[in-house]
């Protein structure tokens, strides 16, 4: 694997393999003047993409043994660099070691184990039903890699968010360019310096890049782009991908609503909500963003939330080793400004030097308040009061579709109603965040919260082109003459009969079903 440090920054010396007039691997039509040509000539990353494409075309990444060896190397990276990961994420955002080990290492390892245990099965051709005409042939779905894929990651879980897609991309047989977030500098450096010594540098590269360089990187033609970040950047990525008709997965964010009914165990709700909201100092895409509950429930929840916060982080969360910090100054100022909405019921203390914002609960909010307009992505929980569940559902449905909807109630019917009558990327009843721990569940957004899904087999499928294949025998030509000109009514009659679907509801079929 190569790192971005190997490559010159845009506007400086060009890497080999992309000098003017040279035919690149990614040229459509043998280097003719195409849109791609114009876009990538002089592009500082064109040589890298071109080299990875040549490696992919060589077929090197396709054998099961190769994929397994690369995946096992990712496992060694996680084991041997565990301490460095904990230190880098602590330096970047004071990530508590427990939270770092759980999310960056253990959840990534779950994905790795799931993939290694199932890869031979996932890779196999899938044989499918045939019709009368193809009964003697072979019809199957080939699990083809896309080719050269780009993974652009966010900073809030800086290892997990590049590694989990990378596991699926390697498992599916692709070559990969990984672009970690530049926000978490220590982790970015660790990835760029350490990862290349674990995996094959002919096929996998780390590019360290800010917005300007990523813009140049995106001018190149990739065969698939997997992006994690905010919805406005998601639009930029999709626009860049559209130029090459490159398919994308967009793992985006938004505001996740959490309905709390009047019938529930208030202490348990408070603990589960506080954990999900204040984990990683609130910088989690699936954190509950705001609660929807009755005024009576709000009055019961406030003391319970205060108690949960003290139980978790002590009387002064600033001194707790288990409470993180905001990632950077810009984000700190953005989150701090959100504190001006409504009324602070719990917390509200800040310290700019440390980028500390106390676990905070805001009440008396109006839908028009700034905090109700944008994703909080910080340790603030807002509460919006509603008259009942119907009003909560209307509130949710009147906004962009979220990454996750949460619902708490001792009555399963209430939880099921919220599930049935709303739309979101995922759903979790009576807890927060925990749905993400299951590799058996697809993870992803819908509408403004994203496009596509991953985790477990869904990651493998995301990075796989499902190629529909029919392999016919060379003989039996007499059968084929039925579809060849000159056409006749008699031939059409036979073709019609061959195409006719079985009547599933005929008495004979119903009896045997
Ligand atoms: P971001 O969109 O600012 O950055 C994400 C990546 O995109 C970074 O690698 C960054 O370098 C790159 N980038 C930023 N601006 C770019 C541009 N103009 N052109 C090209 N590349 C650009 O997001 P962020 O601040 O890193 O992350 C926060 C957002 O990500 C939140 O909205 C959060 O909800 C979302 N998120 C979603 C998930 C998920 O799985 N759905 C996970 C984590 C974070």
Keywords, separated by commas or semicolons:
seven-stranded mixed sheet; 18 helices; 513 residues; alpha/beta; disordered N terminus; binds nicotinamide-adenine-dinucleotide
Q: What this model shows, in words?
A:
- The chain is of the alpha/beta class and 513 residues long.
- The chain has helices spanning 35-40, 46-57, 64-80, 82-93, 97-123, 160-171, 185-194, 211-217, 231-243, 266-278, 295-313, 329-338, 389-397, 412-421, 457-462, 477-480, 489-499, 507-512, and strands at residues 2-3, 126-127, 138-145, 148-152, 175-179, 204-206, 224-228, 248-251, 257-260, 290-293, 343-346, 350-351, 356-357, 360-363, 380-385, 404-408, 426-429, 450-451, 464-471.
- The strands form four sheets. The chain has a seven-stranded mixed β-sheet, with helices on both faces.
- Helix 6 (160-171) links the parallel strand 4 and strand 5 (175-179).
- Helix 3 runs antiparallel to helix 5 (97-123), helix 5 (97-123) runs parallel beside helix 6 and helix 10 packs across helix 11.
- Nicotinamide-adenine-dinucleotide binds at residues 152-156, 161, 179, 181-183, 211, 214-215, 228-230, 233, 236, 251-253, 285, 375, 377, 403, 445, 450.
- Nicotinamide-adenine-dinucleotide (NAD) binds at residues 152-156, 161, 179, 181-183, 211, 214-215, 228-230, 233, 236, 251-253, 285, 375, 377, 403, 445, 450.
């Amino acid at each position: 694997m190569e790192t971005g440090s190997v490559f010159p920054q845009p506007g400086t010396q060009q890497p080999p393999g992309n000098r003017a007039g040279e035919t690149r691997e990614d040229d459509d039509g043998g280097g003719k003047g195409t849109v791609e040509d114009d876009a990538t000539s002089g592009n500082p990353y064109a040589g890298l993409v071109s080299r990875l494409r040549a490696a992919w075309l060589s077929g090197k990444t396709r054998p099961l043994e190769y994929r397994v060896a690369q995946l096992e190397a990712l496992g060694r990276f996680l084991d041997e660099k565990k301490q460095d990961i904990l230190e880098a994420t602590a330096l970047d955002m004071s990530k508590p070691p427990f939270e770092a080990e759980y999310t960056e290492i253990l959840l990534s390892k779950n994905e790795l184990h799931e993939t290694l245990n199932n890869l031979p099965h996932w890779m196999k051709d899938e044989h499918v039903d045939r019709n009368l005409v193809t009964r003697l042939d072979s019809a199957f779905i080939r699990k083809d890699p896309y080719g050269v894929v780009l993974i652009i990651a966010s900073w809030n879980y800086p290892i997990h968010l590049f590694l989990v897609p990378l596991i699926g991309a390697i498992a599916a047989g692709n070559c990969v360019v990984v672009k970690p977030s530049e926000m978490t500098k220590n982790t970015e450096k660790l990835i760029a310096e350490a990862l290349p010594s674990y995996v094959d540098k002919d096929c996998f590269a780390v590019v360290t890049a800010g917005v300007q360089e990523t813009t140049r990187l995106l001018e190149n033609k990739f065969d698939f782009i997997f992006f994690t970040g905010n919805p406005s950047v998601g639009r930029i990525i999709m626009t860049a991908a559209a130029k090459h008709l490159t398919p994308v997965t967009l793992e985006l964010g938004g505001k996740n609503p959490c309905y709390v009914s009047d019938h529930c165990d208030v202490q348990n709700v408070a603990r589960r909500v506080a954990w999900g909201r204040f984990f990683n100092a609130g910088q989690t895409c699936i954190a509950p963003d705001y609660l929807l509950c009755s005024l009576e429930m709000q009055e019961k929840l406030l003391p319970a939330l205060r108690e949960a916060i003290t139980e978790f982080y002590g009387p002064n969360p600033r001194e707790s080793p288990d409470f993180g910090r905001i990632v950077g100054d810009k984000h700190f100022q953005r989150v701090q400004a959100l504190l001006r909405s409504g009324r602070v019921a719990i917390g509200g203390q800040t310290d700019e030097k440390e980028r500390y914002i106390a676990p905070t609960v805001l009440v008396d909010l109006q839908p028009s308040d700034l905090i109700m307009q944008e994703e909080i992505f910080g340790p603030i929980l807002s509460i919006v009061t509603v008259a009942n569940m119907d009003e909560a559902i209307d509130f949710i449905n009147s906004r962009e579709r979220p990454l996750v909807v949460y619902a708490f109630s001792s009555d399963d019917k209430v939880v099921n109603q919220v599930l049935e009558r709303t739309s979101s990327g995922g759903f979790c009843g009576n807890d927060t965040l925990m749905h993400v721990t299951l590799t058996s569940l697809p993870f992803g957004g819908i509408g403004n919260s994203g496009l596509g899904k991953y985790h477990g087999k869904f990651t493998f499928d995301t990075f796989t082109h499902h190629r529909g294949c029919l392999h016919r025998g060379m003989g039996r030509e007499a059968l084929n003459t039925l579809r060849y000109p000159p056409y006749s009514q008699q031939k059409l009659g036979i073709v019609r009969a061959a195409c006719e679907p079985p009547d599933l509801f005929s008495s004979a079929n119903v009896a045997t079903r």
